[in-house]
User: Fold this.
Amino acid sequence: MISGSSVISSAEYDASILELTITFRRGQTYTYSGVSLKVAEGLEMATSPGAYYDARIRGHYTRS
Assistant:
């Protein structure tokens, strides 16, 4: 799903439960609840996934 990011290693989206799981290059993995398909696709298509994450995901969704 994610390629060429210096911050994010991978991301997986489960549309059936609206969860986005992001694994960072430093090893942390976080799952965000209530994420819309539009936001998940935006992360995938972003020129800078790290900047998109900071602007649209971090602090906007519940993280587990």
Observations:
- Helices lie at 37-45, 49-57.
- The chain has a mean pLDDT of 95.
